[in-house]
Amino acid sequence: MTPAARTQAAIELLDQIVAAARDGGAAADTLIARGFAARRYAGSKDRRAVRDLVYRAIRSFGEPPRDGRAAMLALADADAELAATFDGSGYGPPVIGSKERRAVPGLAPAWLIDALEKSGIGGAEQAALLDRAPLDIRINPIKADAQPIVIEGAEPVEGLADALRLPADTAIEKLPEWDSGAIEVQDAGSQWVARACAARPGMTVIDLCAGAGGKTLALAADMAGEGRIVACDTDRGRLSRLPPRAIRAGVAIAETILLDPGREIEALGDLTGRADVVLIDAPCSGTGTWRRNPEARWRLTPARLDRLVETQARLLDLGASLVRPGGMVVHVVCSLLDAEGADQAAAFLERHPGWQAERPAIAGSPHGAGMRLTPASHSTDGFFVATMRAP
Ligand SMILES: C[S@@+](CC[C@H](N)C(=O)[O-])C[C@H]1O[C@@H](n2cnc3c(N)ncnc32)[C@H](O)[C@@H]1O
User: Fold this and answer.
1) Which of 233, 304, 322 has the most ligand 1 atoms within 8 A of CB, as the residue to mutate?
2) How far is the CA of 338 from the centre of ligand 1 (A)?
3) In this prediction, does ipTM exceed 0.90?
4) Where does S-adenosyl-L-methionine bind (predicted)?
5) What is the CATH number of domain 191-389?
6) Per-residue model confidence as pLDDT tens digits over 321-376
7) Residue 209 among the catalytic residues
8) Edge-to-edge strands of the sheet including 155-157?
């Protein structure tokens, strides 16, 4: 592809990504993959260049641009090489007109910046939300043998003996440790919040929003493969990826339960009052994971945030009913908004007299009743975690 054709491909993909963000359609990565499937002539260098252009645009604009051309024109204003690709050639974008509108660069929609500020996330913290994310792995003690794992360029992660930070371009899937299940890709922040559960051998743990089981597997490692983990989710597709991952990781103590949204208790009634720990890694706005998923800023609206906050509160109350006396509910969100984190934990404690917050001994900064991790301060994805003990 010529440089001009790459720019035009990025514009067309951005058109689809903007529409999908507005209408709740497919994620940017899916649309990009589909776009390349339809452009078989694109080689690997073309694909990388187009993808980089698309993500540069997504990172640059806090509000969804009106279309892909407005986004690319704004980038071209500060990049002469990119501007030169608007040359009107066969597969390239038309020449830049004198009065064409540009997208306005920014970090996030104004209402969201305001909510971050009110949650104590100021300028430097906000800027770091869009940095490049590191590549972290968790060493799986169930599968790793006694030999230390040696991977070129790997750095230790302070406080997490089982974590390594790898160079971003490490081809993980080609490592023998990947094949054997001795390593899992997992952000250090996720590893810390799994630690907050203090899961121990023999416990009964419910991972209420387990998704594909990233934290389930970390909990199983802390339980040394002894006890019971009930991993639940309402998303059949995500939950179905858990059992094969568990087999690969040598985890035999996790069972899965598919939940019906709004009727979760029907499938969990037998566990009422029986769990030592209920982890609620709740559905949230994902403001702490913009490094990996910058397009999430284009999808969030105040109404959607309100719905998430409601669901989180409902799941916390459900979690409280499943815990045994003296057991623990762990509230986790990969968000830095207090509405989903500190305020949510405070509201839970108010609704449940006798419950006590116990600040977990993990990395992070004390925030409200829990701990907060941020990209700028702790070099992890952004998380809030609160552990609450039943009377
Ligand atoms: C932050 S993700 C979980 C990530 C997962 N724990 C991990 O470590 O990879 C939140 C999950 O909550 C699930 N979810 C949404 N509503 C739910 C509900 N009512 N009950 C249980 N899970 C729900 C979503 O499908 C999603 O998989």
Assistant:
1) 233
2) 19
3) yes
4) 233, 260, 281
5) 3.40.50.150
6) 999 999 999 999 999 999 999 999 999 999 999 999 999 999 999 999 999 999 99
7) no
8) 155-157, 160-166, 135-139, 183-185
